[in-house]
Design brief:
This protein is mostly helical. 61% of the residues lie in helices and 2% in strands. Among the domains are: 117 residues, Tetratricopeptide repeat domain (Serine Threonine Protein Phosphatase 5, Tetratricopeptide repeat, Alpha Horseshoe), CATH 1.25.40.10; 74 residues, Alpha Horseshoe (Serine Threonine Protein Phosphatase 5, Tetratricopeptide repeat). The chain has a two-stranded antiparallel sheet. A hairpin with a 4-residue loop joins strand 1 and strand 2.
């Protein structure tokens, strides 16, 4: 029906968005997957989620703990809270976990203070209370608990109207945790320093060192961003590409979806490597299965055209739908296009095509606006409505779309 094309520019190359299908070919920076430290924890596992632990607590207490008598020792109270939270040997009871964390926290036991703060932050077993969360994070942080120092920094950083003082406080707490080797803090502090205005070369070098330290501990977001920095250099060399691939691979093998997606783009385009559509599809799938909407869209394109996988339109439609439901405009357009091209398969397909074209059109996709305008003009998949046809064609025309301008002129001449 249409042979129109639009362009989307990315870091590495150009993606042609057309009625024949579109994959997202852009390699992008992200904060997705960065360990946010919200886990109830007292130990950092490099590059992985933190878990409930009993850091600094004699593990023998767990064996000696009996529910027949109420523990008064803060360490025992903390462990009992952990058991109630996990349902370990007792019925899981989040409210009881909060009770015992509070008992231990009020005696100054830092891991319990940290966990109580998380419970307030989440509203788990207690009413959500940000001021209480900040209070207990601070209590634990001031005792030197690295997870609490990191989380307190994040609390400052997440302020709705971030002030310079709050930024300074965030960086100070990140710095305390980073100096103790806490990888998420090293990563966050490094990124904050790199993103400052007019950053000096000395500060940039310090930031890179922090990212490198976090990456060497296996912290996937740091590995990913080091790869991005390699690709964003001026005059990217083959050596830069090779180093970026190494960092992306390390992050991707840990399941970090943005790195998996980037590897998919690199192998699909053959950017600094031999093109390998099979590997591209494999990496897209790994990211797509974690909900990465651009990877879902690109995997749909590969199934539609049989690139790196066998051609399967049902699979293409399913992956487009997953991405489109997350609001990704290219997938919304692709799903609408796929339904429109299969209008003879079902009387509902044009209705579905119009629905998805509308969603893409509302986000400014010029080809979707043009398609939707034509559907209203012809009464295909929608009730014929020339006013709505003119509306959507005008939206596309205002973006400089020549074909829409021509159709508008013809419509106006017939009225």
């Amino acid at each position: 029906m249409l042979n129109k094309k639009a362009l989307l520019f990315g870091f590495i190359g150009i993606c042609f968005l057309s009625f024949a299908g579109c994959g997202s070919q852009e390699i992008k920076p992200t904060t997705q997957g960065a360990n946010n430290g919200n886990e109830l924890a007292a130990a950092q596992k490099s590059g992985r989620d933190q878990e409930l632990t009993a850091r600094g607590v004699n593990q023998g207490y767990q064996k000696k703990l009996h529910l027949s008598s109420e523990p008064r020792n803060a360490q025992q109270q903390y462990l009992l809270g952990v058991r109630f939270l996990k349902g370990d040997g007792v019925s899981q009871d989040v409210s009881q976990a909060v009770h015992w964390f509070r008992q231990a926290a009020e005696q100054g036991f830092a891991p319990a203070q940290h966990n109580l703060a998380v419970m307030y932050e989440r509203g788990a077993g207690v009413s959500k209370d940000d001021s209480q969360a900040t209070h207990w994070f601070r209590q634990a942080a001031e005792q030197g608990l690295v997870q609490a120092q990191f989380r307190l920094g994040q609390r400052y950083l997440s302020s709705e109207n971030l002030t310079q003082e709050e930024m300074t406080q965030a960086m100070q707490w990140f710095d305390k945790a980073a100096k103790k080797g806490f990888a998420p803090a090293q990563y966050h502090l490094g990124m904050l320093q790199l993103n400052r205005k007019n950053v000096s070369q000395e500060d940039a070098n310090q930031a890179l060192q922090l990212l490198f330290k976090a990456a060497k501990q296996g912290f996937a977001p740091a590995q990913y961003h080091l790869g991005m920095l390699q690709l964003n250099r001026k005059n990217v060399s083959q050596e830069d590409v090779n180093q970026a691939l190494q960092w992306f691979n390390q992050a991707a093998k840990q399941g970090f979806a943005p790195a998996q997606y980037n590897l998919g783009v690199i192998y699909e385009r053959g950017a600094g490597v031999s093109q390998d559509l099979t590997q591209a599809a494999q990496w897209y799938r790994k990211a797509a299965e974690q909900g990465h909407y651009e990877a879902q869209n690109n995997l749909g394109v590969m199934y539609e055209h049989g690139q790196g996988v066998s051609q399967e339109l049902v699979q293409a439609s399913q992956w487009y739908q997953k991405s489109a439901e997350q609001g990704f405009v290219e997938a919304q357009f692709n799903l609408g296009r796929l339904y429109a091209q299969r209008e003879t398969d079902s009387p509902d397909n044009l209705i579905k095509a119009a629905l998805w074209f509308r969603k893409a059109a509302e986000q400014g996709n010029v080809v979707a606006q043009y398609n939707l305008g034509l559907m209203y003009a012809l009464g295909k998949g929608v009730t014929k409505d020339l006013n709505k046809a003119k509306h959507w064609l005008s939206q596309a025309a205002e973006q400089g779309d020549v074909e829409s301008q021509k159709v508008l002129e013809r419509l106006n001449s017939t009225l």
